[in-house]
Amino acid sequence: MPTKHEIRDALLGFYDGRGEVMSRSAANKLADKIKRQRFVTPEFVKVISHGDPTGEQAVNNILRSLGINIHTGTHHA
């Protein structure tokens, strides 16, 4: 299971790879939420750290379906 910091770093790399900015604070918050959901696997980290527009859209769709704002890392009930 990846650590929170590994998830955070993968998220930061994911956004950087897309030419977008995510603050370290937002990445930490989102990493916490992802870690608590317990759906993270090493494969998940590979997916979000790989530059793949179709896969990136899929990850964003999953995060949105969990009520997580992909830009701020905040959860919407």
Q: Can you walk through the features of this model?
A:
By secondary structure, the protein is mostly helical. It contains four helices and no strands. Helix 1 (4-17) runs parallel beside helix 3 (42-49). The model has no long low-confidence stretch (mean pLDDT 77).
Helix content: 55-70%
- The rounded distance between the terminal residues' Cα atoms is 26 Å
Which value, in Å, is the CA radius of gyration? 11 Å
**Biggest sheet, in brief?**
none
Question: What is the tally of beta strands?
Answer: 0
Q: What is the string of SSEs from the N terminus onward?
A: HHHH
The chain-level mean pLDDT equals: 77
The number of helices is 4
Task: Provide the low-confidence segments as ranges.
Answer: none
Content-based structural category: mainly alpha
Compile the SSE list and pairings.
Elements: H1 4-17, H2 24-37, H3 42-49, H4 53-65
